[in-house]
Amino acid sequence: MSEQHSSESDFPELPAASVNSRKRRFSLVWVVPVVAALIGGWLVVKAMTEKGPQVTITFKSAEGLEAGKTKVKFKDVEIGLVEEIRIGDDASHVVVKAQLIKEAERFISENTRFWVVRARVSASAIYGLGTVFSGAYIDIDPGKPGKSARRFTGLEEPPIVTTGLPGRHFILESNRRGSLEVGSPIYYRQIRVGEVVAYHLSEDGSKIVSKIFVNAPYHQFVRSNTRFWSASGVDLKLDATGITVNTESLVSILVGGIAFDNFRTNSEPEEQAAESAMFKLFPSREAAQEKIYSTKNFFVLLFEESVRGLAPGAPVEFRGIQIGQVIDIKSEFDFKMNKVKIPVIAAVEPERISADRPELCRAGFLPQRQTSQAEPRGEIRIHRIPDHPDPIGGDRHQGEPTHRQAGPDPHRPDRQ
């Protein structure tokens, strides 16, 4: 026992181990993924907040367009990118989906127009020449503010964009389009001041309605009494004074155009024409300079002889001065007299002469049809026949046409 005790005392007493609790520290290994997650979340939020509208546009063809590459621009500033191009359900068109930026949302409404800008060559100008190297792109015209929209039908031809430009639009009406095209120039005293924006056929199909834009400050010269006329080609006139040639410019000879002037008299100038004011488009400058009379009296002239060469539009003259024109020519059979009579409806403008029209007939001024070899187109001339009875009461002069005042023709409204 003593030996065992002595052996235990030979070893020194060892100190007790102390356990210290250490705090867990953040490892640098997690810094990178946390920062990446924060950046990714910020990018997602930024993309969601800055993401603009997605629009769907239909075109007849996707020529020049490519998903992921074709850009959408406004005033040559990129505002979007084409994301998808597919063929429509009926295979008659293509559907283009484009993603726009946030700032472009204020440009998109039901009045927005889209079209593809490609290199185009016309008689008056060359368009989109830069797309030969950079590729085609989709351009937009915001138009007037309207309701929100996301589906659009793209234009096949680039329009004339006047949104935001100083000036005014005017509407012209004519019987024929002639050589007018979108982009045809507008002239004021041989200075180009605008262009044709659009044209279409009226709803009843009776006339051509053209929309033009006159740039500022020239729009102030368009007044309520302004006359517009077609300036296409060369206006050639041959008379006793010689040959007169009128044209606005070489461009108007090749591609057509429109000119206007006020033809002012001694009276005070009229007020400026308002936006979208309507005017008549005359076929020539000479026609535009003719005075327009507001009052017309209609007469029916009964001819028993041939009226060959006489046609609607033929002049009614008195001593070489036109006082009216032929409106219509018909034929009727008189069963009582067993004769064929030809009623010619003529419109006389009483403002051209200072006498009462029935008094001219009572005084023996009667109409006669005139034709000649030099001028095969017929006309009606008023002649003075002495001691002629009053034809309005139904009397008839031998060798002269029977005539009566018909008043306004119920089948033909009074034309200005």
Q: What would you note in describing this structure?
A:
By secondary structure, the protein is mainly beta. The protein folds into 3 domains: 51-153, no CATH class; 167-289, no CATH class; 297-405, no CATH class. It is built from 6 helices and 26 strands. The strands form 5 sheets. Strands 19, 20, 21, 22, 23, 24, 25 and 26 form an 8-stranded mixed beta sheet that branches. Strands 5-8-2-3-4-1-9 form a 7-stranded mixed beta sheet. Strands 10-13-12-11-17-14-18 form a 7-stranded mixed barrel.
Chain-wise SSE layout:
Elements: H1 2-9, H2 31-50, E1 51-59, E2 71-74, E3 77-87, E4 94-101, E5 113-117, E6 120-121, E7 126-127, H3 131-134, E8 137-141, E9 151-153, E10 167-174, E11 185-188, E12 191-201, E13 208-215, E14 227-230, E15 235-239, E16 242-246, H4 250-255, E17 258-261, E18 277-282, H5 285-289, E19 297-303, E20 315-318, E21 321-329, E22 332-334, E23 339-348, H6 357-362, E24 365-370, E25 379-384, E26 402-405
Parallel strand pairs: 1-9, 2-8, 10-18, 11-17, 14-18, 20-25
Antiparallel strand pairs: 1-4, 2-3, 3-4, 5-8, 6-7, 10-13, 11-12, 12-13, 14-17, 15-16, 19-23, 19-26, 20-21, 21-23, 22-23, 24-25
Count of domains = 3
The biggest sheet, with number of strands, parallel, antiparallel or mixed sense and barrel status, is: 8 strands, mixed
- pLDDT below 50 for ≥5 consecutive residues: which ranges? 371-376, 388-416
Number of alpha- plus pi-helical segments: 6
> What does the overall shape look like?
elongated
Helix residue percentage: 10-25%
Q: Strand portion, in percent?
A: 35-45%
Q: Please count the beta strands (DSSP E, at least 2 residues each).
A: 26
Output the structural class: mainly beta
Q: Give the N-terminus to C-terminus distance in angstroms.
A: 150 Å
User: What integer value in Å does the Rg equal?
Assistant: 42 Å
Mean pLDDT score: 77
